[in-house]
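Case study: Urocanate hydratase.
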Amino acid sequence: MTLAEFQADIRAGIPDRLPAAKPYDRQINHAPKRKDILTPAEKELALRNALRYFPARHHAVLAREFAAELRKYGRIYMYRLRPDYEMHARPIDEYPAKCRQAAAIMLMIQNNLDKAVAQHPHELITYGGNGAVFQNWAQYRLTMKYLSEMTDRQTLVMYSGHPLGLFPSHPDAPRVVVTNGMVIPNYSKPDDWERMNALGVSQYGQMTAGSYMYIGPQGIVHGTTITVMNAARKRFTGDRTSARGMLFVSSGLGGMSGAQPKAGNISGVVSVVAEINPKAARKRFEQGWVDELHESLDELIPRIRQAVKSKEVVSLAYVGNVVDLWERLADEGIDVDLGSDQTSLHNPWAGGYYPVGLSYEASNKMMAEEPARFRECVQESLRRQVDAINRLTARGMYFFDYGNAFLLEASRAGAAVMGEGGRFRYPSYVQDIMGPMFFDYGFGPFRWVCTSGRAEDLDTTDRLAAEVLEEMLRTAPDDIRGQLEDNLHWIREAGRNRLVVGSQARILYADCEGRTRIAQAFNRAIADGRISAPVVLGRDHHDVSGTDSPYRETSNIYDGSCFTADMAVQNVIGDAFRGATWVSIHNGGGVGWGEVVNGGFGMVIDGSEESGRRIREMLFWDVNNGIARRSWARNDGAVEAIRREMARTPGLQVTLPNSADDNVIRNALNETES
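Here is what the predicted structure looks like once written out:
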């Protein structure tokens, strides 16, 4: 397809003449069939909802086709509408657009649906088994058409993948406002999502899928690298001061979890990651993200012993069920240093977790046709998995929950994961590492995309970011020196580690000062031509202030407010009027529908003074909103960080907590009771 044909296809939106039906491509990794949850009346409603995108003359053909999709897949994806062009991020100037901000958003959407990036690209699912950019291909086509027509005095409103329309606004307003899954709280159970998604009225946007900010597994490589490095430091013994030769065991190579072996290599450990889906494991191997594939435990176990003994830095994938791996490691008496899990247990009944004893194909069939039995199999599998993990931790393994709802779902299954006082016996990685060491100080996953598509521009941004971190290190206080040093090491090694999948993107963890200084360095480089095109700034929602999630991002909030969502909502509102190009807020993401509210942003910078102003105003709020909240929860690191920021920033006044003496409180309660 020529560039002119591509641009014409974008502008056309939903074509006036129906394109030919497309064959089902079995070479692509597809979403599993969803369970049959709609009543007969609701199935009629689902068809009515789907057909409203098309004129009545097409309804007879499409009604039969969509009914067949609903019956066969449990959803209406409108496969016929999938474009003929290759889906990938193009250089920004190839998009038909009236403003560059809109072109940048089109680039980001296509990157999220690139088959090299997305988990189930033909079902418009980017990662996590159900993290969708759109519900169907009509929504994609109509959204791209609107973006091609948008001016800088319009805002596109997105309701769970549905483009509500372009509305008059102004140049300082966001160009796109996105909501995903924002349902009434009493209708936020897993089956509610299944029903509303099948009806075509809501979707699960995960964190960065439905907000167009996913950059492939690189985003989580960095977070996992930081986590593994600091978990290894916790595991260090008197005769060991390096992670080299440590054994790290986990599961998942599909979407974001595919980052684990690469993170293991960067951290210097022996990593073993199980993956039940052969296509997913093969994809990561072909991309160079895992070094070896093993289908036999009899072959893998000796290989693990050899790698640990010789202190290799190597990543091994087991193509099979992780429970079999855990049980074999425990039975063989192999000492595992670090353990975790990255199956998509926020979505346990619809492809996020595959129970031991069933093949991948048999599981997919059972989850759709016998959902109650499948649920029992998953819970039995979780109990066995935890039993094996407990045996290994008794021998010294440091196990941590990676924020995928593993401990939550294991507890619901009756697995032995509870400790004293009704708490989990194992920490969340946020409780032990990310929260007190990073989020409380404002460090989080700052990321950017070079819209030129040129590797040379990405190299320039890497160099500029490293220069900023080096300069900050010269005067940094002791409590953040370690974070800066780890991230400086990361950015220096980023190019060598071949982290780019899809768009020319990068990530590092930085605080407010670091993000702002790096972004301003990029803006100056665009202005003077060292970077050839605009840069999109963003972050994962898994950050300082973007997400309220009691089992992950806010799991180290102990004042009782971890179940509130004021921070995430305030984050998005504040970002919207301080200069974000687009903002998003979602129910669900990472740990499950109904378990989290998370917000994100994207910002296009173009070298202008206006971009410089937006960087200063928006990034400041985006970070310090969260530090202030964490400070009020009496988190020591956050109190110190916000004190420093108030001293540095005129006009900032944050309410600080006063600490009460434990004895005063206990005496008062005892006196009252007596």
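For the exam, be able to explain this: The chain has three domains: 3-170+187-199, 217-427, 440-648.
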